[in-house]
Each structure stands twice: as structure tokens, then as C-alpha cells.
Design brief:
This protein has 494 residues and is an all-alpha fold. It is globular.
Length: 494
């Protein structure tokens, strides 16, 4: 294992080095939170694919393949479809808004009265997403170093918190690019073909397993529908995803770079399901489907390759964890804390200071550190990753999907309708999870319907949004409104 250890240690040291490099580059709020809004197509595609393909997509995707066969790809497929829909239909308009958070978008659309409550819901989502990613370190470090769960979470979490706090989005973008390359090599180019060969090829896999393992819809229509509601729609509205869209250097980059990332997700989905299916042939009686990834890596891969593939799994977890962490801190600082202290500010670039001379880079860095510590502590206390992730996405979709998409697509939607939709949808999801169980499908179904009904009814019953607000909103969507402070002209990284 010595060679494998060296590979992992070099990888982790590289992550910290990029954090230090990012700290030197992130001199303004715009640089720190959205990488100066100037990523080119290459970096944008890589960082978008990296953030959505985390531990759940890698370890969980292989586990679903182990349990259901090729139809286990559907969870990650719906994530890819969400990124494709976001990129083709919404990303260009979102990028032109020049905001930092989803709640700022709601304020622009509805006249500045929807941000706080939506910020609280979005903060809860990003916090739980960061927690679930951090818990996944326990599985990987247990395979790597045979350390206990708490130490594994502290070790992995501390590295992510360190490079995210140092350089913000620039550090996260650079580390995501490395993580994207490592995942591509480790999972697609190495683990996938090796797993299929070890299982005897596709012919032997078909001979050894029931036919339903090769049925594209074997996982069940209701499950697929729920995945679409939670993950496809979740990709359309999550702060962690939008914050990456904000980094795009142009409308074209946001649209086509995201399309490439979404297509990559579809390939990754199929690869994970095939690896899991091969693992079922090799290890038909594992205690848990989620053990499939670690088992096949540990037992079937040669030295060195094993270290690289485990680094790929670590990369998958770190990319989602860091993206969720900076999203959580951005929402906490910009949407909640700034409002509570009575200093509501519009989106700004410039020198990184607000009107009171407050250093916003230092402020956001402090929030990342504070949220990072909180995430590590919650991850240590929490055991069930699936339940935590389900709570996060149920709150996001049930509470925020309708007012966000309604604001983008329906002129008649009002601030009162948006606030009612967030409150009723969020409370309905929480109440229904208590009644039906966290993992039940009903909470997101009925919560979403309640949110939609209230949004339409209240919007129609209240005065339309004033024309001045709508005019300013249309100007921002079209990219014609001037930015409060312009950024210096710099080359666009590719």
C-alpha cells in the first residue's frame, strides 16, 4: 500500500497548494466568490462536472448498479439531465444577472422582499449537502488508512475547509479541475474497463446475473420520477450550481460549457452502473451495496492504480464538499447575516469592500471557516447520509423550485406569492417527512404541489409586481443594465 499512500498524500498536498495559490489571486469579492466571472469553456465545463459528480454519484452510483444493474444509472442520469436543462434554457440569463446568490435573484425579480426567507431555506440545503459530502470521507479514509470515522471526517473536512477558506472560488475551481481529470482517469479510463474484464466481460455478466439487471427501467418508474423531481429540478435551482454558472465568462460559455458537463454526467452515470454490475458478479453477497466501490477497488486493482482510483473517489467527494461549503457560506453571509445586521447590499464587484469599509473578502473567508467547522461537527454527529441528503433536496425543491422558476417564466408572479410558496412548500415538506418518513416520496410530491398552488393563488390575488421592478429585471436578464462597479479587463482563463 506504500505506493497508494504516496499517490494520495501527493494529491492532498496538491489541493492545499492550490488553496494557497488561490489566496494570492482572490483580491475582491467577485474573485473570491465567483472567480471574477471570467472562466473559459474548458475550466467551466470541468468545474461544473466536478461539483455535481460527488461521493453520492461515484460511491452511491456504483452501489445502485450493484443493487439494480444498468438501471442504477438513473440517479446520476437525472443529475446530468438537470445540468443540460439548466445550461440550454436558463444559464445564459442567470449569468447575465451578475448576482452572487439565488436569493439576490429573487430580490431582483420580486422587488427586494423575498430574499431572507429563501436564504434560510437555501442555507439549510447547502449545509446538509456539505455535511453529507463530508461524511463520505469516513468511507474512503477507512479504506485508505484504516482510521476511525471521526478522524477520517476531521482529516478530509479540514483539507477542504483549508483550501476553500484560503482562496475561495479560485482555489475551488483549480482543485475541481484537478479532481475532474483524476475522476476521468481513475473511474472512466481505469476502474471501468478493469472491472468489466475482471467480471469476465459483458457476456459473462449477462450469464451470471438475472435479466432485470440489464433492463433500463428495472429500478422502477416511480423511483425514476422521484429522481427527476429531486435531482433534475434540484440542479436547476441549487445555490451550489448557480454559483458555478456565475463564474462563466460569457453567455456562450455558460450554455455550451454546461452542455458538455451535462453530457459528461450521462457517461459517468452509465460507467458507475456498469462497475456496480461487474461488482455484483465478483462479490454477490456484500453486506451493503455501498460497499461495492471500495471492495472492487481494494481487491481487484493493482498497486498504484488502486491509489489513483481511491484518489478519484476522494476527488469526487471533495469537489462537491467544497462547492457546497462556499455556497453555504455565501448564503449565510450575503443573504442572512447582512440582512440581519441591517446592511442589505446589491451585488458588487469592485475592490471587495462595502460602503462601510468592511472587507468583504475577509468576511466571506471567515464565514467559510465558520461554516466548515460547523459542517465537520454535524458530520461527526450524524450517521445517515441518505436521510440527510433527502432532507436537503426535499427542502430545496419543495420550498424554492416554484418561486424561482415562476420568477423566470411567469410575469404575473408576485413577491407575496413567492414568499407564500417558500413558506408553505417548506413547511409542507417538513410536516410530510414527519408523517410519512424522511425517505418517502410523498413529501416532495405534495410539498411541490402545495407550493405551486399557493404561488399561483396568492400571486393572482395580489397586485402585480410594479412595472419599474419588472423593467429593471428585464434589463438585467438581457445584460443591458450596468454593473455597480466594473471589473478590470483581464484575459479569460480557458
Amino acid at each position: 500500500m506504500a505506493v497508494d499512500y504516496i499517490v494520495i498524500v501527493v494529491y492532498l498536498a496538491g489541493m492545499l497548494a492550490m488553496g494557497w495559490w488561490g489566496m494570492r489571486r482572490a483580491k475582491s469579492k467577485s474573485e473570491f466568490l465567483v472567480a471574477g466571472r471570467r472562466l473559459g469553456p474548458g475550466m467551466y465545463s470541468g468545474t461544473m462536472a466536478a461539483i455535481v459528480l460527488g461521493g453520492a454519484s461515484t460511491i452511491g452510483g456504483v452501489g445502485l448498479g450493484y443493487q439494480y444493474g444498468l438501471s442504477g444509472a438513473w440517479m446520476v442520469v437525472t443529475i446530468g439531465l438537470g445540468i443540460l436543462a439548466l445550461s440550454v434554457f436558463f444559464s445564459a440569463r442567470i449569468a447575465r444577472l451578475k448576482v452572487y446568490t439565488v436569493s439576490e435573484m429573487l430580490d431582483l425579480r420580486y422587488g427586494g422582499r423575498a430574499g431572507l426567507i429563501s436564504g434560510v431555506v437555501m442555507w439549510a440545503y447547502t449545509l446538509m449537502l456539505a455535511v453529507t459530502s463530508t461524511i463520505a470521507y469516513a468511507t474512503i479514509f477507512d479504506v485508505l488508512f484504516d482510521v476511525n470515522r471521526t478522524l477520517a471526517i476531521v482529516l478530509g473536512g479540514s483539507i477542504v475547509v483549508a483550501y476553500s477558506t484560503l482562496g475561495g472560488m479560485w482555489s475551488i475551481t483549480l482543485t475541481d479541475m484537478v479532481q475532474f481529470v483524476v475522476k476521468t482517469i481513475g473511474v472512466l479510463l481505469l476502474l471501468l474497463p478493469i472491472a468489466v474484464v475482471k467480471a469476465g466481460g459483458f457476456g459473462e455478466m449477462k450469464a451470471q446475473l438475472p435479466t432485470e439487471y440489464f433492463d433500463p427501467l428495472g429500478i422502477g418508474g416511480e423511483t425514476i420520477f422521484t429522481y427527476v423531481l429531486i435531482y433534475t429540478f434540484g440542479m436547476l435551482i441549487g445555490q451550489d450550481i448557480w454559483q458555478r454558472v456565475f463564474t462563466a465568462g460569457s453567455d456562450r460559455t455558460a450554455k455550451w460549457g454546461g452542455t458538455v458537463a451535462g453530457t459528461y454526467c450521462l457517461v459517468y452515470a452509465v460507467a458507475g452502473a456498469v462497475i456496480g454490475t461487474a461488482a455484483k458478479v465478483l462479490y454477490p453477497r456484500l453486506a451493503s451495496p455501498d460497499d461495492a466501490f471500495a471492495t472492487i477497488v481494494k481487491d481487484e486493482l493493482p498497486v498504484g492504480v488502486r491509489g489513483l482510483v481511491l484518489a478519484a473517489a476522494l476527488a469526487a467527494v471533495m469537489s462537491t464538499s467544497s462547492g457546497a461549503l462556499i455556497a453555504c457560506a455565501t448564503v449565510a453571509n450575503n443573504d442572512i447575516w447582512s440582512r440581519l445586521r441591517g446592511a442589505v447590499r446589491g451585488p458588487r464587484g469592485g475592490d471587495g469592500h462595502d460602503g462601510d469599509g468592511h472587507d468583504e473578502v475577509k468576511g466571506n473567508r471567515a464565514f467559510i471557516l465558520a461554516m466548515g467547522v460547523a459542517v465537520i461537527l454535524i458530520a461527526i454527529a450524524l450517521n445517515d447520509v441518505v436521510e440527510a441528503l433527502t432532507v436537503a433536496y426535499n427542502l430545496l425543491v419543495g420550498g424554492l423550485l416554484v418561486p424561482i422558476l415562476g420568477g423566470l417564466l411567469w410575469k404575473r408572479g408576485t413577491a407575496q406569492g413567492a414568499l407564500a410558496a417558500v413558506a408553505v412548500g417548506g413547511l409542507a415538506v417538513v410536516g410530510l417527512m414527519a408523517a410519512y418518513g424522511i425517505l418517502a416520496n410523498e413529501p416532495v410530491y405534495y410539498g411541490l404541489l402545495a407550493s405551486l398552488a399557493v404561488y399561483v393563488a396568492v400571486s393572482l390575488a395580489t397586485r402585480p409586481t410594479d412595472e419599474a421592478t419588472l423593467t429593471a429585471w428585464r434589463e438585467r436578464l438581457a445584460g443591458r443594465a450596468p454593473e455597480p462597479q466594473s471589473e478590470p479587463a483581464v484575459p479569460t482563463p480557458q
